[in-house]
């Protein structure tokens, strides 16, 4: 295998690095990498893998580009809203490096197809954001005997770990044998994310893959933790070798069954909660109120009711309805009696109608049937925008 003449110019800045050279560039050209997820982590990883000259890149993502993605998913743009992310990313990479071989795979990665889809690649990058796919990718990497470079980011923090590395590197199940409760696993939409944080972790994933391909990796498994507000921002934790009792990669335990026969969603506690749908449940007639009925109360009795918004101060500062006081849910549940002094009827609101239910229930319990209406708004501010005021911001 040889480099094209103009590739000496294109890749010259990295080929002159000690320990990299022409052999390293040829290794990249011959390598193949599968990137699962073309979102906040996948986009920067893909961009740098393409720019570095990886010969074949598979992009696996069944989602489409939305306007909310553009804050962090840097390969997509406004003209690609509605396009499959895998195709959008492939087009962007071709503009960076037209010689790349790119496989844009728009089907969902499932237990039934994971081995087949990932088998052609040397390294797998996990750029997803949900536990079932993480376990599926880890088990598949073990079955295929390929390293898995996994990234995660949320709020202002992120982490990087390479699993199944070398002869004794642990897999994801070694570190996390029991998945977290689905109720406790937030998404970027629920918890927030700074785009630059996903960029840092995604770039580190690309770097890990390049190091492995070119032989620059020290082959020592570790977990790298990043905090944008930390000092220092990076912290590395050395990992033990794989557990002999691990059901995926261990040697002394029964191995996991055929991957295609595993229900990873149920293993992780079921489907992710649909908070918007939950917030729209009517509940008990005396506990909740529709946005239509609530708007009438605001028109006729605004000065005779107490209005409490239980979102975080950051969310409250983005947008709020007139007359509402911000009392974050954690503060209200910690001391509900602080809001018992008024004899007015109390109405709670939040973003989707879930936290407001908790707040209303907590205050009703504290009142101990002393009278007065305590209700929350069904569907929260999202329903308010949909049915009352279409100009109220949605975030």
UniProtKB/TrEMBL annotation:
Positions that bind ATP: 40, 61, 68-72, 85, 129-130
Biological processes, Gene Ontology terms: protein urmylation; tRNA wobble position uridine thiolation
Entry annotation: catalytic residues: 188 (glycyl thioester intermediate), 350 (cysteine persulfide intermediate)
InterPro entries membership: MOCS3/Uba4, Rhodanese-like_dom, Rhodanese-like_dom_sf, ThiF/MoeB/HesA, ThiF_NAD_FAD-bd, Ubiquitin-activating_enz
Pathway: tRNA modification; 5-methoxycarbonylmethyl-2-thiouridine-tRNA biosynthesis
GO molecular function, one term: metal ion binding
PROSITE patterns: RHODANESE_3
SUPFAM superfamilies membership: Activating enzymes of the ubiquitin-like proteins
Superkingdom field: Eukaryota
Localisation per UniProt entry: Cytoplasm, Cytosol
Entry binding sites for Zn(2+): 171, 174, 246, 249
Cofactor binding note from Swiss-Prot or TrEMBL: Binds 1 zinc ion per subunit.
GO cellular component annotations of the record: cytosol
Zinc as UniProt keyword: yes
SMART domains: RHOD
HAMAP family the UniProt entry points to: MOCS3_Uba4
Protein name (Swiss-Prot/TrEMBL): Needs CLA4 to survive protein 3
Species this protein is from: Roridomyces roridus
Species classification: Eukaryota, Fungi, Dikarya, Basidiomycota, Agaricomycotina
């Amino acid at each position: 295998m040889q480099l094209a003449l103009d590739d000496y110019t294109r890749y010259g800045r990295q080929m002159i690095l000690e320990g990299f050279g022409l052999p390293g560039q040829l290794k990249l050209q011959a390598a193949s990498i599968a990137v699962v997820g073309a979102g906040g982590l996948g986009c920067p990883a893909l961009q740098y893998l393409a720019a570095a000259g990886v010969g074949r890149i598979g992009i696996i993502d069944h989602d489409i580009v939305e306007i909310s993605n553009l804050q962090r998913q840097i390969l997509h743009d406004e003209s690609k809203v509605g396009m499959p992310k895998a195709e959008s990313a492939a087009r962007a990479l071709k503009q960076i490096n037209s010689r790349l071989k790119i496989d844009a795979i728009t089907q969902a990665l499932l237990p039934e197809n994971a081995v087949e889809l990932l088998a052609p690649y040397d390294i797998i990058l996990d750029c997803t954001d949900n536990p079932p796919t993480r376990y599926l990718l880890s088990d598949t990497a073990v079955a295929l005997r390929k390293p898995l470079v996994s990234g995660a980011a949320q709020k202002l923090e992120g982490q990087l770990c390479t699993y199944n590395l070398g002869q004794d590197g642990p897999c994801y199940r070694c570190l996390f044998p029991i998945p977290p409760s689905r109720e406790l696993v937030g998404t970027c939409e629920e918890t927030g994310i700074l785009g630059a944080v996903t960029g840092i972790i995604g770039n580190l994933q690309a770097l890990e893959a390049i190091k492995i391909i070119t032989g620059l990796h020290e082959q020592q498994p570790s977990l790298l933790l990043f905090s944008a507000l930390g000092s220092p921002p990076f912290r590395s934790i050395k990992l033990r070798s794989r557990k002999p009792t691990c059901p995926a990669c261990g040697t002394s335990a029964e191995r996991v069954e055929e991957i295609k026969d595993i229900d990873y969603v149920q293993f992780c506690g079921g489907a992710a909660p649909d908070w918007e749908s939950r917030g729209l449940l009517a509940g008990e007639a005396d506990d909740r109120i529709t946005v239509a009925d609530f708007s009438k109360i605001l028109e006729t009795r605004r000065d005779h009711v107490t209005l409490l918004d239980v979102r975080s101060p950051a969310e409250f500062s983005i947008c709020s309805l007139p007359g509402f006081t911000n009392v974050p849910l954690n503060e209200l549940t910690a001391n509900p009696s602080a809001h018992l002094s008024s004899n007015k009827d109390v109405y709670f609101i939040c973003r989707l109608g879930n936290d407001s239910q908790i707040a209303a229930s907590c205050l009703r319990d504290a009142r101990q049937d002393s009278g007065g209406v305590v209700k929350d708004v069904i569907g929260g501010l999202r329903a308010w925008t949909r049915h009352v005021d279409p100009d109220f911001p949605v975030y």
